Design the sequence.
């Protein structure tokens, strides 16, 4: 039987504990802040895409919706010659599009070599949400899109057609240090709920062989998100990024404690080291975002740019660190 003295002692201790816990709860409620949303993307054209994505993030929306809406801006911009409408065709004159999307639950969806569709990223999302698969290519991807209400569009803009015809005169495939022929939009967003999603979409390398697929639709190469760690995406020579499973590698480096910039740098170094040619023609860059909203980027060559949009900064970062 518990004595009255011990009971009083015990109940005093219990109420002290309860009051400490109550205070701690109030404190933790006060100190739990919503995450500061942020969106980053590749290249200067990412700024307009980020602005669209940030509208969704600042309204409390999902990072997944933000990245899809963001990159759609670039997909329909005829002035971007490397993504969606206005994108450069392959050497046979077909605009073939690659896109991928990944959300905070590790849901994934991709399309590759998709023709005649204005928003391949939305088809990738549909693959993720409405198909039993994660990756659909070519005719099958087009059929899936059309069956689901997407419209068939001529994606070859007059300007892209003109440039292609000029290229045909020489028919020289030069996947060298020419940023104009290999720009993709890759986008990563962190929403106020602390979740990260990513999207990546491109017309691929200008004047590629028909049927060639790059890194952009390959989860782990052109895009990867692990909601416990962060996300990464790439632009540049897909052949080289695929070889090292680039975006997955960046995320794994972040898991080991690297900052986003260090992780991108380590992946770029690995890419150059692993490339059989190890020469000047290896050109690519990564961007990465971690769970704290810290971002970073690194490229092989000078001239790479990224766009950032948060409450603190909006614009294009031009002085990205590089290897050479
Ligand atoms: C690709 N990384 O298809 C993409 C697009 C690009 O050079 O940037 N190409 O390889």
Sequence:
């Amino acid at each position: 039987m518990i004595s009255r003295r011990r009971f009083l002692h015990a109940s005093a201790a219990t109420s002290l504990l309860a009051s400490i816990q109550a205070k701690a709860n109030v404190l933790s409620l006060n100190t739990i802040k919503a995450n500061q949303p942020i969106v980053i993307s590749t290249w200067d054209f990412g700024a307009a895409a980020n602005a669209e994505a940030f509208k969704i993030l600042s309204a409390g929306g999902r990072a997944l919706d933000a990245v899809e809406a963001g990159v759609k801006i670039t997909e329909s911009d005829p002035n971007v010659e490397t993504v969606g409408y206005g994108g450069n065709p392959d050497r046979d004159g077909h605009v073939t599009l690659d896109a991928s999307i990944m959300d905070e639950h590790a849901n994934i969806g991709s399309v590759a070599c998709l023709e005649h569709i204005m928003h391949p990223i939305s088809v990738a999302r549909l693959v993720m949400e409405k198909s039993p698969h994660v990756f659909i290519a070519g005719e099958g991807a087009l059929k899936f899109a059309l069956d689901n209400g997407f419209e068939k569009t001529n994606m070859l803009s007059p300007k892209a057609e003109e440039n292609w015809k000029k290229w045909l005169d020489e028919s020289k495939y030069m996947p060298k240090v020419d940023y104009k022929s290999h720009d993709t939009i890759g986008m990563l967003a962190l929403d106020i709920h602390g979740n990260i999603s990513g999207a990546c979409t491109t017309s691929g390398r200008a004047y590629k062989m028909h049927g060639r697929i790059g890194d952009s639709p390959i989860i782990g190469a052109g895009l990867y998100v692990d909601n416990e760690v962060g996300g990464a995406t790439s632009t540049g020579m897909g052949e080289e990024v695929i070889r090292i499973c680039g975006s997955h590698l960046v995320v794994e480096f972040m898991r080991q404690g690297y900052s986003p910039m260090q992780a991108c740098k380590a992946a770029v170094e690995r890419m150059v080291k692993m490339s059989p040619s190890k020469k000047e023609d290896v050109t690519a860059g990564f961007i990465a975002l971690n769970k704290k909203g810290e971002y970073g980027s690194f490229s092989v060559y000078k001239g790479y740019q990224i766009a950032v949009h948060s409450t603190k900064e909006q614009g294009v970062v031009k002085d990205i660190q590089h290897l050479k």
